[in-house]
Amino acid sequence: MIQFKNASLDDFDIAFDYIEKLWTYNSYDKTAVLDVYKRVISSGDNFAFFVMDDDEYKGFCHGTYFDTFWMSGRTCYVSSIITDENERKRGYGIQLMDHAKELAIMQDCKALILDSGFPRIEAHHFYEKYGFEKSCYGFELLL
Description:
The protein is of the alpha+beta class. It has four helices and five strands.
C-alpha cells in the first residue's frame, strides 16, 4: 500500500543513500549533508518525504517554498526527486511528484519548478511527460 512518510532524523541514512545515488558524480561529506538535512526537516519552508510501499522505502523527495517576483508569489522548487534505478517506471516518481504538487498547492504556490542535469535524459522525459515545460537554463557559481 502506497503511503508517504515525512523525513525524520531516523531516516537520514536512507535519505543519504538516495542522495548519493542521484548525484553519483559528486562526493559527499556525510556530516555536512546531515547538517543540511537537519535544517531541511526543521524548516517550514522546506519539505522532505519518502514514498513507501508495504513499509519499504521506494523514493525520496525534497523541496523548498519561496517567494519570487517572476511568479508574483510563492513557488515550490523541487530540488530532489529520487527513486532507485531498479524501481523506476513503477509509478513511484509520479507518486512523489503528485505529493509534492499537493504540498505546493496547500502552500498557495503558483508553480512547481525544478532543474535537471544535461545528462539525465531519462529524467527529462519523465518531467515532460508529467507536464513540466522547459523554461530556462540553470546556472551555478560555486563559492
